[in-house]
Amino acid sequence: MAGNSRRKGAVRKDGTKKGQVAGSGGNRRRGLEGRGATPKAEDRPYHAAHKRARAASASASGAGRGRSSAAKRRDEDGPEYVLGRNPVVECLRAGVPATALYVMIGGTPDERVSEAVKMAGDKGIAILEASRAELDRFSSNGLHQGVALQVPPYEYAHPDDLMAAARDSGTPPLLVALDNITDPRNLGAVIRSTAAFGGHGVVIPARRSASVSAVAWRTSAGAAARLPVAQAPNLTRTLKDWAADGTQLVGLDADGDTTLDEYDGSGPTVVVVGSEGKGLSRLVRESCDSILSIPMAGPVESLNASVAAGVVLAEFARQRRTR
Q1: pTM of the predicted model, to two decimals?
Q2: What is the per-residue pLDDT for 71?
Q3: How confident is the model at residue 86, as a pLDDT?
């Protein structure tokens, strides 16, 4: 008879619905808990996307290991791109040694773009059309305004040649040395201020310093083409050599031993500027003849490095005009 478990040969199996069945006692409760979001395909080891990503990563790392240091240096020393309509026009006016001008296809040209195209044509600079995607690759933020100027790597002067040219200029040397300046925008602004107030050049350390990149070109508005910039393998040694030749070294710091109102900058002078955060390094500070502070009427504790340099250079230029 169906359901007769007592018939000969019948066997009752544990866990069937017939009769009393023991519960799990809560041991399976965790099986009902949620397991969270489904992992991405790349994070699932059994998925084809994970295998493709792993293969691509291995290929990229292998290519990086196989590259020579010379190839890496070539990438770092590759061309720079000045972006934006005003900076491009300023660089072309200043005679920046550009190699190509890129103009976006379908862009809205104005008088600045027309002037840039005309100047590039007159100078024999290649004029190339580019898509928005191509120009976006030149910029990290896409602020190119539809135009880009390709410039070769900057050629730095030697510190000795920089000082020699300043002494041969007919006016007392006025140079700016930058210590711990890592923002290329500050470098570009200092170059622009130095050129505007009659300075003869800027010197920067060869290491741990901002370089004359496209950002510095843009901030200097073309002044980097007119003003020499030197790289010093050892900034402290260079400053000491200049001091030994009769040049006064004046460092800028809010806790200076003299103020701008009291300082005479009409003679051979090197203005040494440190970063806003770290200031002057110990060895560079000890090399300076004086530490100069700028009197301020407001409650501001300090000025941006490039602003401070501009204020001091403007005052020294005024002193030289009136003497």
Answers
A1: 0.65
A2: 35
A3: 87
Find tokens 């409650």 and name the residue.
299
18 within 8 A of 5, measured Cβ to Cβ:
yes
Tell me the two tokens of residue 114. Answer: 């027309």
pLDDT at 70: 35
E strand or H helix at 52, and its extent? helix 48-66
Question: What pLDDT, on a 0 to 100 scale, did the predictor assign at position 47?
Answer: 65
Strands 174-179 and 201-205: parallel
Phi, psi of 235, deg, nearest 5? -65, -40
Strands 100-104 and 147-151: antiparallel
Q: Where are the beta strands (DSSP E) in the chain?
A: 80-83, 100-104, 126-130, 147-151, 174-179, 201-205, 229-232, 248-252, 258-259, 269-274, 290-293
Q: Do 145 and 83 meet the contact criterion of CB atoms below 8 Å apart?
A: yes
Residue from 302, 248, 249 nearest 278 by CA: 302
Backbone φ, ψ for residue 130 (5° rounding): -140, 150
